[in-house]
Amino acid sequence: MENNIVLRRGVEADLPQVLALIQELAEYERAPEAVTNTLAAMQRDGFGPAPIFSFFVLENTASEIVGLALFYTAYSTWKGRMLYLEDLVVTESARRGGLGKLLFDAVVAEARATGAIRLKWQVLEWNESAISFYKKLGATIEDEWFNGNLDEGQLASYAVAPEAALAAAPATGRSL
Fold first, then answer.
1. Which end of the chain, N or C, is more open, meaning fewer C-beta atoms within 10 Å of its C-beta?
2. Catalytic entry in 28, 72, 134, 158
3. 112, 126 Cβ separation under 8 angstroms
4. What is the pLDDT of residue 2?
5. 13 to each of 142, 166, 168, how far by Cα in Å?
6. DSSP sequence for the chain
């Protein structure tokens, strides 16, 4: 491969460099303070007893990770199984060499291999270079859906109905 870059599935030992790339992305997206994830949480969530995400990395000959595509399985009630691409980032010094497309190709291949019928992701409305990149790959960039979120504080203060709390409790006697 060009520049002796290796594309491979990520492993737990990659997580410190992966978190650094995530922080680099947050700086690019003008929100460096928004990253509150930790190495311990990523180890638990990606490599614990019930992993909920996976990722591909691009590694150079110096064993530095220069690209990341982090994804997870999601479900559409209308369409079924899908893959959600949470982050696709190539470090600034390695951009414009086709590495982003290579990472995207790996996620598309993963979607196909896992039987996903859709691949979804988000892109900031001001990120014209990313929008252009995705459109060049043939993607549809939607403008009719708005994102809804509850942050950590909002989740904690939200008044959940008692029946809902019971239904969400671990599966030991969930009858109402």
1. C
2. 134
3. no
4. 52
5. 36, 38, 33
6. -GGG-EEEE--GGGHHHHHHHHHHHHHHTT-GGG----HHHHHHHHHSSS---EEEEEE-TTS-EEEEEEEEEEEETTTEEEEEEEEEEE-GGGTTSSHHHHHHHHHHHHHHHTT-S-EE----TT-HHHHHHHHHTT-----S-------HHHHHHS---HHHHHHHS-SS----
pLDDT tens-digit readout, 72-113: 999 999 999 999 999 999 988 888 888 989 999 999 999 999
* Terminal-residue alpha carbon distance, the chain: 58
The residue ranking higher by pLDDT, 36 or 140, is 36
Which pair of tokens denotes residue 27? 């700086």
Q: Nearest 10 degrees: CA dihedral of 168, 173, 175, 176?
A: -70
**166's tokens:** 């019971």
**Which two tokens mark 55?**
């990722």
For residue range 154-170, list pLDDT tens digits in order.
888 888 888 888 888 88
Active site residue 28: no
Cα radius of gyration (the chain): 18
Q: Whole-angstrom Cα distance, residue 35 to residue 33?
A: 6
